[in-house]
Specification:
mainly alpha; 18 helices; about 80% helix; single chain; elongated; about 325 residues
C-alpha cells in the first residue's frame, strides 16, 4: 500500500473518495515523482484511476512515470487513454511523441509534435514540441529540417539547453562546423555540466583541425561522465595522434577496431600511428585492412549508384557516387 510515515500518507489516511480521491491521489503521486520515486508514484496514479477512470491528469502523470521507467509501450497506451478523454491535451501529445521516439517510430513522433504545435500551446510547451520534432527529423537524416525545428525552439525559449544541443548536432551533420561549435558553446553557457555538449564540441574542433581544443573538451566530458566516452574514442584518438601522443592513440584505436572491425578511418589513423613509431609491419597491416574495407565499400556504392541511375533516380545515384569518391579521397 502506498505511503508510510517517512514517505507520506497512505490513501486511507487521506479520507477521500471518488473524484476528490483521484485528484488527491494524483497529487501525491506527483509529489513522489518529483523526488524520483516513479514506481511508487505509479501505484498512486493507479489508485486514482480506480476511483475515477476519467482523470486525465492521472493518465498523463502515469505516462510520464512510465517513460522515466523505460516502459515506452505502456507510456503510449496511457497517453492514448488521456487523449481519448481530451484530444487537446498538449502534454499527452508530447509524452506520446517522446515514447514513440524511444521506440524508433520517428514519423509518428513527428506527427505527435505537429499535433501539439497545432494546438497553439504556450511558448514553453511549443518549444518542447519543436525541439522533439527536430530530434526525430535528425534521426531520419533530415538535418536541414531538424535545424529549422530547433531554431524555432530556441526562438521561443532562448535558454532551452536540449534545443541548442540538437541544433548543434544538425549543424555538425551538415558540416557547418563553426556554427555547430557556437551552438554547443551556447548550451554550455546555459549549463556547463552537460557532458554531451562538451563531447560534440570536441568533435567540431577535430573537424576544423583544432586538436588541442578537442582534447580539452573531451577531458571535461570525461570528468563529468566517464561512462559516456565510449562513443567518441575514435575522435579522442584522432586528436591524440594529431597532437603527437601516438602511444595513447594506439591504445584507444585498438579498442575501436576490436569493437568495430570495419571502421576504416580508425584503421588508417592506427596505420599512421604505427608508422610514426617505427612499427612498419603493423603500419602496413593496418593500411591493408583499411584498403580492403574501402575497396568493398567503393564497389558497393558504385553498384548501388548504377542501379539507381538505371531506375531514373539521378539524385540518389549521385549521392552514392559521391560516397564512393569521398572514400577514395580519404
Amino acid at each position: 500500500m502506498p505511503g508510510n510515515a517517512a514517505n507520506g500518507p497512505t490513501w486511507e489516511d487521506l479520507g477521500v473518495a471518488g473524484r476528490d480521491a483521484a485528484r488527491v491521489f494524483t497529487e501525491e503521486g506527483m509529489r513522489l515523482a518529483r523526488r524520483g520515486s516513479h514506481e511508487e508514484a505509479l501505484r498512486w496514479y493507479a489508485r486514482a484511476l480506480q476511483e475515477d477512470p476519467t482523470c486525465v491528469q492521472a493518465w498523463v502523470a502515469s505516462s510520464f512515470a512510465l517513460g522515466k521507467l523505460g516502459r515506452y509501450r505502456e507510456e503510449v497506451k496511457a497517453c492514448d487513454q488521456a487523449l481519448a478523454l481530451d484530444p487537446g491535451l498538449v502534454p499527452a501529445w508530447i509524452n506520446r511523441g517522446f515514447a514513440l521516439g524511444k521506440l524508433s517510430r520517428f514519423e509518428e513522433k513527428i506527427a505527435c509534435c505537429d499535433r501539439a504545435i497545432g494546438l497553439s500551446p504556450g511558448a514553453a510547451m511549443e518549444a518542447s514540441a519543436w525541439s522533439a520534432r527536430g530530434h526525430a527529423l535528425g534521426e531520419l537524416g533530415r538535418y536541414e529540417e531538424e535545424l529549422a525545428s530547433t531554431e524555432r525552439a530556441v526562438s521561443l525559449r532562448p535558454r532551452y539547453l536540449g534545443a541548442w544541443v540538437n541544433r548543434g548536432y544538425a549543424l555538425l551533420k551538415l558540416k557547418r562546423y563553426r556554427e555547430a561549435q557556437a551552438s554547443f558553446t551556447r548550451a554550455l553557457e546555459i549549463f556547463p555540466g552537460y557532458a554531451a555538449a562538451w563531447t560534440n564540441k570536441g568533435i567540431t574542433h577535430c573537424h576544423v583541425g583544432e586538436y588541442a581544443q578537442a582534447l580539452a573538451c573531451f577531458a571535461e566530458a570525461e570528468r563529468l561522465r566517464p561512462a559516456g566516452m565510449r562513443r567518441v574514442r575514435y575522435w579522442k584518438a584522432l586528436a591524440l595522434a594529431q597532437c603527437g601522443h601516438h602511444r595513447e592513440a594506439v591504445t584507444l584505436l585498438e579498442e575501436v577496431v576490436r569493437d568495430n572491425p570495419r571502421h576504416a578511418e580508425a584503421w588508417v589513423v592506427l596505420s599512421n600511428c604505427h608508422f610514426l613509431q617505427g612499427r612498419l609491419e603493423e603500419s602496413v597491416r593496418c593500411f591493408m585492412v583499411a584498403y580492403g574495407i574501402d575497396r568493398r565499400d567503393i564497389q558497393s556504392c558504385m553498384v548501388r549508384g548504377v542501379g539507381l541511375l538505371r531506375d531514373g533516380k539521378k539524385d540518389e545515384a549521385l549521392h552514392c557516387f559521391s560516397q564512393a569518391f569521398g572514400i577514395l579521397l580519404r
